[in-house]
Design a protein that fits this description.
Oligomer: single chain
Radius of gyration: 16 Å
Largest sheet: 6 strands, antiparallel, barrel
Length: 112
């Protein structure tokens, strides 16, 4: 297996609670750090949902591995930002047996 081309900077973001001024809180996205990644689109599919047509494209985003628990290790409750594009992380797995890279299975969030 050849090494991935980590040629795109992705900002890793985590959801953080922030006081809303009325005793509660709202969740906002905060940058955790920037990771260099290889971003590969999968096969798209057409989905019919609630009388509207939608499309979905899965992505495989590969980054350098980090130890479990490290802040730089992506998690499924986080997302990547690439400029205006946002990729919600669905799952994370080691790419190879040597655990040098992680593959993040993601889906692009498209504003309605």
């Amino acid at each position: 297996m050849s090494a991935p081309r980590l040629n795109r900077a992705q900002v890793l973001e985590a959801r953080v609670p922030e006081p809303d001024g009325a005793g509660g809180y709202v969740e906002v996205w905060e940058a955790v750090g920037t990771l260099w990644a290889e971003v590969l689109a999968g096969t798209g599919r057409h989905v019919a949902a609630d009388q509207i047509a939608a499309s979905s494209v899965p992505y495989r985003i590969t980054v350098r591995a980090a130890p479990s628990g490290a802040p730089s290790r992506p998690r499924p409750d986080q997302r990547f930002r690439d400029g205006l594009r946002v990729f919600r992380i669905l799952a994370v797995a080691e790419r190879d047996g040597a655990a040098r890279y992680l593959t993040c299975f993601a889906e692009e969030e498209v504003p309605a």
